[in-house]
Specification:
Number of strands: 8
CATH topology: Rossmann fold
Number of domains: 1
Shape: globular
CATH architecture: 3-Layer(aba) Sandwich
């Protein structure tokens, strides 16, 4: 039988052992890398003097943004397609793809900007009533740079999109290479020259109807041509340092693969470096679920290169 002193020493020893185990577990726990804060999405609007109304947008902030103090991030503007809005990226799976690739370390951290573009094709309308391009460049981009911790330079600001948004991304980047250093497009609504007379039915009839709002009613073909990325591509000296990626499905229901192949041909004839692919698939988000990662990885690689270049010059 243990005496009183022995029992006391045993209790003290057990308490010390238990404390040591707890401390060991705490040290082990604190030594494990803690996961970054999850990505965050917030939506708001910007009051536009140019348009005379407010424009909605959403912003996807990368993991750790709120906890990273004064750190600044590259920005990627992603433009939605026709009949979509600023929430399509969130509702159709774009957000999950971006978050998953970021969590896996396949993407550098960057902010994604998702503006509402209506049916504007992201250009100034022919009648002057809807100056969306002016709003985008003169009001939206500066507002984002004021509100968020962005790297406000072209080399770390990219733009991409799907369908109408792909058209808009190429158009805006080609016309404003001082604002955007890169452009990426999936299934861009690239339409070669319209037939004369313009059919009222079928695919060409559909084009004519959806294009009337930004490009005139009846369709002003010369205004359309002046804004068409296929036309802008004829003068790559105007966007000499722009990095370009685009792809399209081989079964695109609107035939935009033909426009994509023509853009590739024009840029190749001009010896302008670019990345292009025709991939198995159709159009829209069914296509994007398989191939959105290509444009995200393209932009991420450029952002990483720009960051390294910036570090070497400072």
């Amino acid at each position: 039988m243990l005496c009183v002193k022995q029992r006391h020493r045993l209790r003290v020893g057990l308490r010390i052992l238990a404390a040591a185990c707890v401390l060991s577990g705490a040290v082990e726990l604190s030594a494990r890398p803690q996961p970054e804060t999850a990505a965050k999405v917030e939506c708001a609007s910007v009051a536009s003097k140019i348009l005379g109304n407010s424009v909605s947008y959403c912003v996807a902030l990368p993991p750790g943004y709120e906890a990273s103090g004064n750190k600044r991030y590259p920005t990627f503007y992603f433009l939605h397609g026709l009949f979509e809005d600023e929430r399509s990226w969130l509702d159709r799976g774009g957000e999950q793809i971006w978050e998953s690739l970021t969590a896996q370390g396949d993407l550098t951290n960057f902010i994604v900007i998702l503006p509402s573009g209506g049916r504007t094709f992201y250009v100034n309308s022919q009648d002057g009533r809807e100056r969306y391009e002016d709003f985008f460049i003169q009001e939206l981009v500066p507002e984002i740079d004021r509100k968020y911790r962005t790297l406000a330079r072209a080399s770390e600001r990219g733009i991409g999109g799907v369908s109408m948004g792909g058209y808009g991304a190429l158009h805006l980047a080609m016309r404003h290479p001082d604002v955007f250093g890169s452009a990426s497009a999936h299934s861009a609504a690239l339409v070669p020259k319209f037939p004369d007379p313009l059919p009222t039915e079928g695919r060409w009839g559909f084009y004519a109807r959806v294009l009337q709002e930004p490009f005139g009613s009846p369709l002003n073909e010369s205004y359309f041509e002046a804004n068409n990325p296929l036309t802008l591509a004829e003068h790559p000296e105007r966007f000499a340092h722009l990095a370009i990626y685009f792809d399209c499905g081989d079964h695109d229901r609107y035939g935009f693969n033909q426009g994509a192949e023509l853009l590739d041909q024009i840029l190749s004839q001009k010896n302008f470096p670019h990345t292009f692919a025709i991939r198995p698939g159709g159009h829209g988000w069914d296509y994007l679920h398989d191939y959105l990662h290509f444009s995200l990885e393209f932009e991420s690689k450029l952002f990483s290169q720009a960051e390294k270049a910036s570090l070497t010059t400072h």
